[in-house]
Design brief:
The chain is mostly helical. It contains 16 helices and three strands. The structure holds acetyl coenzyme *A.
């Protein structure tokens, strides 16, 4: 290879760790101090105080709503919960064993074909689509679960509020006060989290001036992986596999010796406790106790202690969200879809923010292949 053919030397930042790839005012993750801010509010100050509707309004508008604005937002989103017939048919046609995340990803993509504003990326059209997606995604999840279990499909009960209504449409139960609060907090805590992998994927897609549905579809694909949102389902699998508190020490040591990841632990940004885990730990305990499954909380707590002793790492949002969701009656296969419904408002806020000051996101790579290989025509190759 001639010297003129050598690629320019480049430094690769693996996993883009520490790379600042966007400006945002939506949320801030302070990994050193273990703090999370939504539009300037510390998550510890608002998580127990606001509803999921207030949280959505905050992420989309940069301020908390008054009561009238809350009602308007709730009615607008609930008013958009009905699905096009073709999307319902897709849910029915999906192979029973296919993962709910795969069906949800495909259904969101199909929604774009029926959205009257599909390719309109003006701010007003984007706001209408955001409300539609925030309403339709929970319906897809609830309907899919009920169709697969031969249960009647339920219509929204707006008086329950967004998150409790979603839980009702999924499980068929009317949640009590503790369950309502837990579902709200679960969804609030998952609503946004800086430039995480799925949010970055969404921003990359809309930076090409592609449409909102494409960006959300891509984000769902990114969230599905076990290193991101897919970890919560795996946590429940781990708890079932361990099965007894006396087996935890041996199980965790075995995993670590074999260099395997403990699902629901570790984080790219937090170097201390994930602030979301603190709230979810509390609701895991309350709900496991209420549903006579205290052993699941006790096992989780013991796993937390042992992983910290052995490896010095903390649980992330996915760890206690598993037992919270399980105790709320949500099947494990749907855990990551609940994450999608919760994170959708955050993705939408980032998509709108990206459009408002767009520059194509197009990094570069360090080429490690060869150059200048002599060409041999097809007929002359051995
Ligand atoms: N179990 C065991 N060891 C772990 C774990 C874990 N869950 N997480 C990190 N480590 C260890 C690594 O083995 C490594 O140790 P070493 O230095 O002795 O080799 C060290 O911690 C640093 O790990 P990295 O891979 O460099 O951390 P990275 O920032 O790339 O990974 C990630 C972050 C992917 C979240 C990782 O912690 C992980 O795989 N966790 C399990 C999956 C999970 O829970 N994902 C959900 C994350 S939260 C969210 O996305 C919603």
């Amino acid at each position: 290879m001639g010297s003129q053919e050598k690629p320019v030397e480049k430094i690769v930042v693996r996993g883009l760790e520490g790379v600042v790839a966007a400006e945002t005012s939506i949320s801030y993750v302070d990994g050193v101090h273990g703090r999370l801010y939504y539009q300037g509010y510390d998550i510890h100050d608002i998580a127990e105080q606001i509803s999921f509707i207030e949280c959505i309004f905050l992420l989309w508008n940069g301020r908390l709503p008054n009561r009238r604005e809350c009602d308007e937002m709730r009615n607008a989103i609930v008013g958009e919960m009905k699905l096009p017939d073709a999307v319902l048919e897709l849910l029915k046609a999906s192979p029973e064993k296919s993962h709910p995340m795969a069906v949800l990803r495909t259904a969101v993509s199909l929604l774009s074909c029926f959205d009257p504003d599909a390719d309109d990326t003006t701010p007003s059209a984007n706001y209408r689509k955001a409300k539609r997606l925030a309403g339709q995604i929970p319906t897809i999840i609830a309907h899919l679960h009920r169709l697969r279990n031969g249960l009647p499909l339920l219509t929204p009960r707006p008086e329950l509020g967004l998150s409790a209504n979603f839980l009702h449409m999924l499980t068929g139960n009317i949640p009590d006060e503790l369950e309502k609060r837990a579902m709200d907090i679960l969804m609030i805590l998952h609503a946004d989290h800086g430039l995480n992998a799925s949010t970055f994927a969404a921003r990359v897609i809309c930076s090409t001036l592609s449409d909102m549905h494409s960006a959300v579809t891509g984000a769902i694909g990114a969230l599905k992986g076990p290193l991101h949102g897919g970890a919560n389902e795996k946590v429940m699998g781990m708890l079932h596999e361990i099965n007894h508190i006396d087996r935890i020490q041996e199980y965790i040591e075995g995993m670590l010796e074999n260099k395997k990841r403990i699902m629901g632990f570790g984080h790219r940004v937090y170097r201390t406790e994930d602030p979301r885990a603190k709230h979810l730990r509390k609701y895991s305990e309350l709900l496991c106790e209420k549903t006579s499954q205290k052993h699941l909380f006790e096992m989780s707590h013991r796993i937390e202690k042992i992983v910290f002793e052995q490896k010095g790492i903390y649980p992330n949002v996915d760890f206690y969200s598993a037992t919270v969701q399980h105790a709320l009656g949500i099947p494990a296969a749907y855990f990551t879809t609940i994450f999608v419904a919760s994170r959708t408002p955050g993705w939408l806020a980032h998509i709108i923010e990206q459009y408002s000051d767009n520059r194509l996101i197009r990094p570069t790579s360090k080429y490690t292949g060869e150059m200048g290989i002599p060409f041999v025509p097809l007929g002359k190759r051995g």
